[in-house]
Amino acid sequence: MVLIENKTNIKLTFEKPSINIINENKELKIISDLLTGICLEKKTTTNNNVMKSFLTKKIPSISIYDFLERIVKYSKIEKSTLVLILIYIDKLCDMNNVDITFYNIHKLILSSLVIAAKYNEDKYLSNQFFAKIGGITKKEIDNLEYQFLTLIDFSLYINDEIYYKYEDFIQKEGE
Fold it and tell me: What is d(CA 104, CA 60) in angstroms, rounded to the nearest whole number?
């Protein structure tokens, strides 16, 4: 499933664009609303074995918005990294024909955060710190990172055109 395909008909692949620190909650709300809307379409767990590592037994009590806000608060990621999180989740779903649900979205966000931060940020936090932000163990975040990378064939490069389509979508939704 491609997250933004319905509105922009884009496919995936990133060169590090402009650096903007997230200083507003507007982007978080837009991304949260988008991911929440997708999760509402699939209210049950997926039986896809590909996503087994990302599934939780219960839906986490923290909302997607609050989870994203927590991530930004403690990791101080750049806006471009937040956009990459969305692109990488989209890429994973598209390449593996899997669904985003409330049972897997938090771990997808967290694992894509680790990958996007390492790829995009000049300085990034340790997996131990990311695990603490996400409320899981270091061993689990290491496993999720590896599983996510495997599912996207370790393909982290996103060309400028794709990146700016996602960034423009987020900005236009905020207007």
Answer: 9
Q: What six digits make up the tokens of 82? A: 């937040």
Average pLDDT, the chain: 83
Domain count of the fold of the chain: 1
pTM assigned to the model: 0.82
Q: Express each pLDDT in 106-124 by its tens digit.
A: 999 999 999 999 999 988 8
DSSP symbol at 165: H
Distance CA 32, CA 69 (A): 10
The arithmetic mean of pLDDT across residues 51-59, rounded, is: 89
Please state, in angstroms and rounded to a whole number, the distance separating the CA atoms of residues 30 and 25: 9
Q: How far is residue 135's CA from residue 147's CA, in Å, rounded to a whole number?
A: 18
Residue span of the structural domain in which 36 resides: 5-173
Which CATH number fits the domain that encloses residue 96? 1.10.472.10
Tokens representing residue 125 in the block: 């936090």
